[in-house]
């Protein structure tokens, strides 16, 4: 697993979370968010898109790719999160924030590190152990996927 020191842009928030007094780790994971080239209607593409609004689509896209590669994880947020965190490229920092030393992983600058969707998708295809309540299991890849997927019933 690659590790290293990187710099986080000065505008990025660092953890831990203080607004609710929990002191929990923030950010939990990192994604590219500086000078991102993006679609801009009607001009085509533009560069320089920066900030959380540039990084968040990377995370959403990574989860979509992961769930496509690992349908057994669909809807299993805790398991998906654990897999993304365990396969992230770890980065350290010279910045200590709250109870999170920058020299450790996770830290309050990069969290568990930068998302590595290729590593997450290539990780063991064994089902990730459930966290909390049991989750329904997605159909095997060998059977055709129904056109309409039944929705879980609220209890």
Structure description:
This protein has about 160 residues and is an alpha+beta fold. The protein contains three helices and four strands; from the N terminus they run βββααβα. The protein has helices at about 50-70, 75-85, 115-120; strands at about 5, 35-40, 45-50, 90.
Number of helices: 3
Distance between the termini: 42 Å
DSSP strand content: 5-15%
Q: Which oligomeric form is depicted? A: single chain
Please count the beta strands (DSSP E, at least 2 residues each). Answer: 4
User: Uncertain runs with pLDDT below 50, 5 residues or more?
Assistant: 1-5, 133-141
Attribute tags:
23% helix, alpha+beta, 11% strand, disordered N terminus, 155 residues, globular
In short:
By secondary structure, this protein is an alpha+beta fold. Helices cover 23% and strands 11% of the residues.
